[in-house]
Structure formats: structure tokens, C-alpha cells
Amino acid sequence: MTANVSTRTDGASAWAPQLLSVLRITSALIFTLHGSQKLLAFPATDQQPPLLSLFGIGGLLELVGGLLLLIGLFTRPVAFVMSGMMAVAYWMFHAPQNLFPTLNGGDAAILYCFVFLYIVAAGPGPWSLDAARGKA
Questions:
Q1: How crowded is residue 135: how many other Cβ atoms within 10 Å of its Cβ?
Q2: Is 125 exposed, middle or buried (0-12, 13-18, 19+ CB in 10 A)?
Q3: Count of domains for the chain
Q4: Is residue 109 a contact partner of residue 103, using CB atoms and an 8 Å limit?
Q5: CA distance 3 to 7
Q6: How far apart are alpha carbons 58 and 35 in whole angstroms?
Q7: Residue 92 domain-assigned (yes or no)
Q8: Fewer Cβ atoms within 10 A, N terminus or C terminus of the chain?
């Protein structure tokens, strides 16, 4: 029975590098939408912060950082900055409202923080410009 468990684990593990790329791409796509909404009003929103405000700078980081993560270019340093940005966003804007992330609206910020931190450690995966450049 041990051999079957090991075989299943090895089979699933074979997909780990590609799924890392899928995690990076999916997270980056959704993250980029937050920036495009703040800076470009797409998807449509009533909230467009001034560029030289905390939310405007956050939107710029989300848009540019999200696009870099999406294509997997400079992945580790960009993911490090984005992880830190999400930690700051959580503690500065969400945590003061309530102790519980589900009540303060900060659950996405926490999740992004740790997904990006994981990408710092794990790298971009094989489907990235960094891998194509041999810099993964």
C-alpha cells in the first residue's frame, strides 16, 4: 500500500512546477485588475484616487507589479515588493477596523501577501519570462 501512495504523490508532484505558474498567473491577473480599476477605471468604478496618494501609488504598484508577475519577469523581487505592500495594506487599512479578517475585508490582502511570499521562495515556475531567460 505504501507504493501506491508514493506513486500517487509522485504523479501529482510532476505537475507542481506548472501549477506554480498557474498560481502566479491567476493571482497576477486578479491583482492587476485592482490596479487597473484604480488607475484606469476598468472594470468600471466610481473610485479613482489621485495618482499621488496612497491608493494611487498602490494602484500603480498593483498594475505594474501585477503585469510583471503575469508575464513572470523579475518575479522574485516584484513578488517581494507586492507581498510587503499587501502586509502594509492589511495592517494600515483593514486591521484597525476589526480583529477578524472576514469582518474587516482584509482576507484578500492576507492571501495575496502569503501567495506572493510563496512565489518569492518558489520562483515563477516554468511558464515565465524569467525561466525563458534562465533567471528562474
A1: 15
A2: buried
A3: 1
A4: no
A5: 6
A6: 7
A7: yes
A8: N
